[in-house]
Design goal:
The complex is a heterodimer of chains A (647) and B (162). Chain A is 72% helix and 0% strand. By secondary structure, chain A is mainly alpha-helical. Chain B is mainly α and 162 residues long. Chain B has one domain. Classes of the chains: A mainly alpha (647), B mainly alpha (162). At the A-B interface, helix 1, helix 3, helix 9 and helix 16 of A face helix 1 and helix 2 of B.
Chain lengths: 647, 162
C-alpha cells in the first residue's frame, strides 16, 4: 500500500500546485491574492463550503466516534442541518452587509454595525483558535496517519513539516483564489473517495452485514463497553458531567446531540467561513451549497455511507475489548482494505489525509489573510500597497504554518485542550450575526454582555476552563458537558437570554439609528419575501417541530418507533435499527425545510443588481478605508506607535 | 461561444480539472478492481463514473456558455481510443474475460461512443455533427475560399461551429 499511497498523494499534491499556479497566472493583479478581489466563482464556494463542513465535522473524528458510540453519535450528523439553517439565514445578508458597509471581514462588519472594537477583538480571538489549536491537532493527526500507514517509512515529524511546506507553497502561489479552488477540488475528491470506499465496503466486505450483526448483538456490546450502539441514551442525563460522574449507556443523549448541533453552527459562523462567503462574486451558489451540497450530499455521506465504512473499525475495537486507540482502529480497517486491494487501501488513507489537509489549509489561509486585513493593514501599516498586502499575507502565512507545524510536533495535547472550545466559541457570535442580519433591536450592550457570558460558560464547561480553574483554585462541582449538554448549548442559552433581556432595555440607545438604517436598506432593496406572515409562521413552526422530533427531545421516540410501531403489536421487519431510519427520515424532512427557507422564503437567493452604499455616522467619514477611522483604545495606539512610528 | 476573460477561462479550467481528477482517478481504480477481481460491477461503475464526468463537463459547458475546447476533445478522444486499443489488444493477446465482464467492457465502450455521438447530434444537428469530422470538405473550402479555414481556425470550440 505504501507505494500506491505515496504515488497517489504526491500526484495529487502536484495537481494542486498546478491548480494554484494556473489560478495565480490568470490574475496577475496583487489585489487578487488576499481575497480573490471579491470575485470568486460560485462553484468554488459551493464545493469548498461543503468540503469545509465535512472536514470540520471530521471524517477522522466521525469514524472513531462511530466506532465507539455507534448510531447514537451518528445522530449528530442530522444536527449539521442546524448549521445549514443558520447559514441560510445569515450568509446572503452578510454578503450584502459587507458591500453596503465596505467591510472586508466578519469582525469588521460587526464592529462597524455595533460600533464596538471589543467584538472585532473577540472575533480575532476566535479566529486564533481555528488557526492554531484546530490546525495543529489536525496536522498532527495527518502526520500520525501517514506515518502509521506507511509503516513508519516517514516519521510523524517529517510528514508534518513536509505537508506544512507543501501547503505554504500552494497557498503562497495561488493565494485566496488558488487556495479555495484547491479546497473545492479536495471536497470533490473526498466525496468520490468516500463513495468508492463505502461501495467497496458494502459489496466486498459485507460491511453492512457486519454492522447489522453488531446491531443484532447490541445488548452484549452494551454490557461489554457500557455503550448502547443502536439507541439514544435518553433525552438528558442529570449527571455532573464527563470526568465527574458516570454517564449511562453513552453521552449522546438527544440534548447532547441538539447542543452539539449548536456547536457545529460555529463552523459556518467562524470568521474564515464568513470571509469565504463575503468574497464571492455574487449570490449564485449560496442556496445550492447550503441546501443541496451541505444539507443533502454532505449529511447523506456522513449519515449513511460513513457508518458502513466505520463498521470495520467498530468490530476491530470490539474484538480488542474496546482497548484500541484511534490509530489502532484505522490500522485495523486499512489492513482489511489492504487484504482486498492495495489501491483501495491507499484510496481509504487518501480520503483521511485529504479531509484533514483541507481543514488545515482553510484555517491557516483564512487566518493569515484576515490577520493582514484586520491587524496589519488596519493598525500597523495603514498605507500598505496591494503588493505589500500580498507580501504581508505570505509572510504571515509562513509564520502561521511554522507555528502550527511546531505545535503539532511538540505539544498537540495542549492543542486538544484549547481546541475543545473552538466551535463553541465561534457559535457564540450567532446572536450578534442574527441581530445584524434580521433583528434591528438587538443592541450592542446585549450582544457584548451575551458574548462575554456565553464565552465564560463555554470555557467553564470544557476542559480548558475546568483544568485551569482546578489547577489554580479548587475543584469545580461539575465536569465537561454537565447534564450531557454540550458547552455550546450552555453558552448559547445564557448568551441569547442575556442578549435579549439587555437589548430589550437598551435597544433605543444612541446607536439605534445606525442599526435601523442598515435594516431599512435590507427591507426596501433586498427583501426576503416568504409570501406573507402566515407563511413565515408556518415555516418557523414546522422548523421548530422538526427540531424537536429530529434532534431534540422527541428524537428518543426513534429508538423503537420503526421496530415496534405504535399502531401494531407486531415487530416490524425493517432491516436497519429504528434510530437509523429515524435519522434518515429526520434528515430528509430537514432538507425539505431548509430548501423552503432558502428558496421559498428567498433568504439565500436573489438577484442583486446594485449595491446601496451606507456610511455610518459614528465610524465613517466617507473617505478612504472607513474602518481605519474607528477609534482604537489609546493603549493599543500607543503600543503600536512604538513600532510603526519608529524610523 | 461567448468571449471569456483569462480569469473566467481559468475558473472553468479549474472546475473541469477538479471534476476529471476525481472522476477519472476513481474510475481507474474501479477498472483496476474490475479487471483484477474479474468483477463486472466494478467495471460498470468505472464506466458510469466516466459518463458522469462527461455529463458534468457538459453541465459546466452549459453554465459557462462554452463547448468542449479543442485540447479537451483531443485528450478525450485519445483516451477513448487508447481504451479501445487496449481492450482489442487484450482480446487478441488472449486475455480471458468472463462473459459478463466481456459484455460490460464492450458495451461500456460502445455506450461512451453513443453518448458522444448523441451529444454532438443534439448540440449541432446531424449535418454539423458530421461536418466536425469532414476534413475533406474544409480542405476543399480552403482551396476555393480561405474564409472557411479562417472561421475554423478562430473557433476553439468543438461544439459551437454553427
Amino acid at each position: 500500500m505504501t507505494s500506491a499511497l505515496m504515488l497517489f498523494y504526491c500526484l495529487y499534491q502536484a495537481l494542486m500546485i498546478y491548480l494554484a499556479i494556473s489560478a495565480a497566472r490568470s490574475t496577475q493583479d496583487a489585489g487578487h491574492y488576499i481575497n480573490g478581489n471579491r470575485d470568486m466563482p460560485a462553484w468554488a464556494f459551493m464545493f469548498a463550503g461543503a468540503g469545509i463542513m465535512a472536514g470540520s465535522v471530521g471524517i477522522y473524528d466521525s469514524m472513531t466516534m462511530f466506532a465507539r458510540f455507534g448510531l447514537q453519535y451518528n445522530h449528530v450528523m442530522v444536527s449539521i442541518l442546524c448549521a445549514g439553517f443558520i447559514a441560510v439565514l445569515m450568509m446572503k445578508r452578510l454578503w450584502l452587509a459587507a458591500r453596503i458597509m465596505s467591510s472586508r471581514t466578519l469582525g469588521d462588519i460587526l464592529a462597524v454595525y455595533y460600533g464596538s472594537l471589543t467584538i472585532r477583538l473577540l472575533s480575532l480571538v476566535v479566529l486564533l483558535f481555528f488557526v492554531f489549536p484546530l490546525s495543529a491537532i489536525t496536522l498532527a493527526k495527518l502526520g500520525a496517519v501517514f506515518s502509521v500507514m506507511t509503516d513508519g517509512m516517514f516519521s510523524q515529524q517529517v510528514v508534518v513539516w513536509s505537508v506544512a511546506f507543501f501547503l505554504f507553497l500552494a497557498i503562497a502561489i495561488g493565494g485566496w483564489r488558488g487556495g479555495i479552488m484547491i479546497a473545492a477540488s479536495n471536497a470533490l475528491m473526498m466525496l468520490l473517495l468516500l463513495l468508492l470506499v463505502s461501495g467497496v465496503s458494502y459489496l466486498s466486505f459485507d460491511g453492512y452485514g457486519n454492522l447489522k450483526q453488531m446491531f443484532d448483538t447490541s445488548d452484549s456490546i452494551r454490557s461489554l463497553t457500557g455503550v448502547s450502539i443502536d439507541t439514544l441514551p435518553g433525552v438528558v442525563q442529570f449527571t455532573r458531567g464527563i470526568g465527574k460522574s458516570l454517564v449511562m449507556d453513552g453521552v449522546w443523549t438527544s440534548l447532547a446531540v441538539a447542543s452539539f448541533g449548536l456547536a457545529l453552527i460555529g463552523i459556518v459562523a467562524q470568521p474564515g467561513f464568513c470571509y469565504l462567503a463575503i468574497n464571492q462574486r455574487n449570490l449564485r451558489g449560496f442556496a445550492f451549497q447550503q441546501v443541496w451540497l451541505t444539507g443533502g450530499v454532505t449529511i447523506a455521506c456522513l449519515l449513511i455511507l460513513l457508518p458502513i465504512v466505520s463498521g470495520g473499525m467498530m468490530s476491530a475495537n470490539l474484538i480488542a475489548s474496546g482497548q484500541l486507540t484511534d490509530l489502532g482502529m484505522f490500522m485495523a480497517l486499512a489492513e482489511k482494505f489492504l487484504r482486498f486491494d492495495a489501491m483501495v487501501a491507499a484510496a481509504f488513507v487518501l480520503l483521511l489525509l485529504i479531509s484533514l489537509q483541507l481543514v488545515v489549509m482553510f484555517s491557516t489561509l483564512s487566518g493569515a489573510n484576515i490577520f493582514v486585513d484586520e491587524i496589519i493593514q488596519r493598525y500597523v501599516l495603514p498605507d500598505l500597497t496591494e503588493r505589500g498586502r500580498r507580501l504581508g499575507a505570505r509572510v504571515t502565512l509562513a509564520v502561521v504554518l511554522f507555528l502550527v507545524a511546531l505545535w503539532a510536533n511538540i505539544g498537540p495535547e495542549y492543542a486538544y485542550v484549547l481546541n475543545s472550545v473552538t466551535f463553541s466559541l465561534s457559535a457564540q457570535f450567532v446572536p450578534a450575526i442574527i441581530g445584524l442580519c434580521w433583528i434591528p433591536w438587538i443592541a450592542r450592550p446585549g450582544v457584548l454582555a451575551g458574548l462575554v457570558l456565553g464565552i465564560i460558560m463555554v470555557i467553564f464547561t470544557e476542559p480548558l476552563g475546568i483544568i485551569l480553574f482546578e489547577q489554580m483554585f479548587i475543584d469545580l462541582p461539575w465536569g465537561r458537558w454537565p447534564w450531557t449538554i454540550h458547552s455550546a448549548g450552555w453558552g448559547l442559552f445564557f448568551n441569547v437570554l442575556t442578549c435579549l433581556i439587555i437589548s430589550g432595555f437598551r435597544h433605543r440607545d444612541s446607536d439605534h439609528e445606525n442599526r435601523h438604517r442598515l435594516h431599512d436598506v435590507f427591507r426596501s432593496e433586498y427583501p426576503a419575501d416568504a409570501g406573507g406572515r402566515r407563511v413565515v409562521t408556518a415555516i418557523w413552526s414546522l422548523t421548530f417541530i422538526w427540531m424537536f422530533f429530529a434532534i431534540g427531545p422527541g428524537a428518543v421516540i426513534g429508538n423503537d418507533f420503526f421496530v415496534y410501531p405504535i399502531f401494531t403489536v407486531e415487530r416490524s421487519l425493517i432491516d436497519i435499527p429504528s434510530i437509523w431510519a429515524w435519522q434518515m427520515l429526520g434528515w430528509l424532512i430537514g432538507v425539505l425545510l431548509l430548501w423552503w427557507v432558502a428558496y421559498g422564503a428567498k433568504t439565500a437567493v436573489g438577484d442583486i443588481r446594485h449595491i446601496h452604499k451606507l456610511s455610518f455616522d459614528n465610524t465613517f467619514d466617507g473617505s478612504g478605508n472607513p474602518m481605519q477611522n474607528q477609534d482604537a483604545p489609546s493603549w493599543i495606539v500607543r503600543f503600536l506607535n512604538r513600532f510603526v512610528a519608529r524610523k | 461561444m461567448q468571449t471569456m476573460t483569462d480569469q473566467e477561462r481559468q475558473e472553468r479550467h479549474g472546475l473541469i480539472l477538479s471534476l476529471w481528477i476525481g472522476f477519472a482517478s476513481i474510475a481507474v481504480i474501479l477498472f483496476h478492481l474490475g479487471l483484477s477481481k474479474d468483477n463486472w460491477i466494478f467495471s460498470s461503475a468505472g464506466f458510469g463514473l466516466f459518463l458522469a464526468g462527461f455529463i458534468a463537463h457538459i453541465i459546466v459547458n452549459a453554465v459557462a456558455g462554452t463547448g468542449f475546447q479543442t485540447r479537451e476533445a483531443i485528450l478525450g478522444l485519445f483516451v477513448f481510443a487508447l481504451g479501445i486499443l487496449a481492450f482489442l489488444i487484450s482480446v487478441v493477446m488472449g486475455v480471458e474475460y468472463s462473459s459478463e465482464h466481456f459484455l460490460t467492457l464492450s458495451s461500456g465502450l460502445v455506450l461512451i461512443l453513443v453518448t458522444i455521438i448523441f451529444y454532438m447530434i443534439t448540440r449541432n444537428g446531424l449535418r454539423d455533427a458530421f461536418d466536425q469530422f469532414n476534413i475533406i470538405k474544409s480542405f476543399n473550402a480552403t482551396k476555393a475560399d480561405g474564409s472557411a479555414s479562417i472561421k475554423d481556425d478562430k473557433s476553439n470550440d468543438i461544439g459551437s461551429q454553427e
